[in-house]
Design brief:
Layout lengths: L1 H14 L7 E7 L6 H10 L7 E7 L8 E7 L2 H4 L2 H6 L4 E7 L14 E5 L2 E11 L2 H9 L10 H13 L5 H9 L4 E8 L4 E5 L8 E5 L2 E5 L2 H6 L3 E5 L5 E4 L5 E4 L11 H7 L5 E2 L2 E2 H15 L15 H13 L1 H9 L1 E3 L2 E2 L7 H10 L7 H10 L8 H7 L3 E9 L5 H8 L2 E5 L2 E2 L15 H12 L5 E6 L14 H5 L1 H4 L6 H26 L7 E4 L9 H8 L15 E4 L6 E3 L3 E2 L3 H8 L21 E3 L5 E3 L3 E3 L4 E3 L4 H23 L2 H8 L3
Parallel strand pairs: 16-24, 17-25, 18-19, 18-21, 19-20
Antiparallel strand pairs: 1-4, 1-10, 2-3, 2-4, 5-6, 6-7, 7-8, 8-12, 9-10, 9-11, 12-13, 14-15, 16-23, 22-23, 26-27, 27-28, 28-29
Helix pairs in contact: 5-6, 6-7, 10-11, 14-16, 14-23, 17-20
Length: 680
Amino acid sequence: MGQKMNNISDSYYDEDEVHEECGVFGVYDIDGGDVASTIYYGLFALQHRGQESCGIAVSDTNGPKGKVLSHKDMGLVNEVFTPEDLEKLKGNIGVGHVRYSTAGSSTRENAQPLVLNYVKGTLAMAHNGNLINAVDLREELSYTGAIFQTTIDSEVIAYHIARERLNTPSVEKAVASAMKKIVGAYSLIVLSPRKMIGARDPFGFKPLCIGKRDNTYVMSSETCALDAVGAEFVRDVLPGEIVTITSDGRIESDTSMCQQMHKKCIFEYIYFARPDSRIDGISVYMSRIMAGRLLAKSHPVDADLVVGVPESGNVAAMGYALESGLFPTLSKLADEGFVFDSYYQPLWYGSTLGGEYANLMGSPTKNGAYLSMCRAADNENGMYFSLANTLKRMGYSCYGFHDNDYTYYDRNITHPALGYEWIASGNGLEYQTDEYGQDMWPQSDLVMMEETFDKYTNDQPFHLYYLTVSGHVPYGYGAANAMSEKNKDVVSDLNYSDTTKAYLASQYEMEKMLEGIVERLEKRNLLDKTVIVLAGDHVPYDNMEVVDELAGQEFGYSLDAYRSRLVIWSGSMEKPVRVNKVCSSIDILPTLLNLMGAEYDSRLIIGRDILSDSAGLVLFPDRSYVTDTYEYNAALGTIVGDVSDETFDAMQLYVADKFTAADNITETGYYSYVAEYLGK
């Protein structure tokens, strides 16, 4: 008997080793429409996860139970399925699979989905991953009468689900019982006659997400397949979670197998997944960019060309190249200080001025940022709690600089009220001109810094505020953008569109400005005593295609389009501090006041200190918001994440109160009353 068991084990491993780079895709049309074509296009989008074989299994939830139609074979999706094949697959619930094997047998029998007929009916299942205890489980089943038709561990899972179903009240309970026995990395989609069940291993090695299109629910290995079928991303399946889509369109969740310890598969991010996918909220594209940047830091080389091999390494190679030569100072500041993983820069009313108000006052703007700024400035002490006014009370000299006209947006009124000695073009700065004597657009931030820095840093302690303009629209060469034209050779070899390259070239001027600031601080032995803060005022809203191209995905109305970088860096920091809390531009002020040891009443500022114990909250002008557990997109009317009706209703009122308070602060001159009360 022992020899026979060894033969089983040997045969199993010899014929079929690791097959973990597969793709699964399930669809349930609650309204009863056929889903085979949708699964086809979903599998097409997941073809990179498996080119060996593929298959589709469907069932009609309104038809006789146990009738499952399937088609599978060796080859690519477009080779296995003809229009005639898809036409025969009638059913409103179905699952598909693409398979890749690194070794062993490649046979039609090992293609998925698997379809099992048993005493309780019929099960169809697609599996991505592999089990470390598959051999033991297979032997156990074999000696209790199981007859295997394949050599893959997916069949072991299917058998265990079928057996557990005999002793459980539902298929999802059977899946839960089977998960207690299997050990490994996996994601599953299981079809019963009236339900679609998805499951993910407790460590979260293998990805699985949920999408929705009208009244059709989708489960997929990657978000890129959701995009291919026009489905909106709903959420990721949690590690260890079992989700069930029921016939009445509900998503039921069983988190009894979830655990705190998660272990991501790094190969999903660097190789398996498509760059335009997001896994557990992380962009695959950006993770590869970051991997390349980190590699450049740990293993720098003096090279003229960076090449990615294989093709999946191209994005990481780009990250390496960017880190090596294009933005080294910016990257250093961004990665060696506080690293805010979930920072948002909303597009506040009035764009630039609205962004300034949010950054410097810690508050949303009223509809019309110009009015918010000006009304606050018109009230004596109306900007009492601004960054500069607070620092001035602590003994700082505060200077503000801008390489555009000093009266633009009435900044000659608002920015002195914010607490700055205001120095801008036409008021302490000369307009920069081209070779023909014409004012350049945009002006150079590097030149602005060179003309001002050394003049205003002798009066210590000091606070310098640079309102930059080098990276401003439009993004093009020649007369369109003087900074892009100046730095076009720096980006000429990058594999981007001309608009995106022009965008990067314009930003390169600010990189040179930052390099100059750091060098000057270091020469004067001030670098270790200085805090450098970098924040945007808004996204390039007129050129969002640039954002899409750099991120490797189309954001549309997604709030992720406003995810950005906030840099808070000090030369005295020994190592980076990573912050996972969601936060935004209105949180900059209270966070800096805390770091600088300023005394302030947090109740008087709309934003929250990011480093405090308070829960994260990001507000958007249209009343969308993001919390640490879910997001509400007002434009789409969607909620991503789990939240009770009671919590959601309470948060809606809370957000509305925040905006009412922000409006009243500017409309009534509330801060001036507070200052008067404090005797200031």
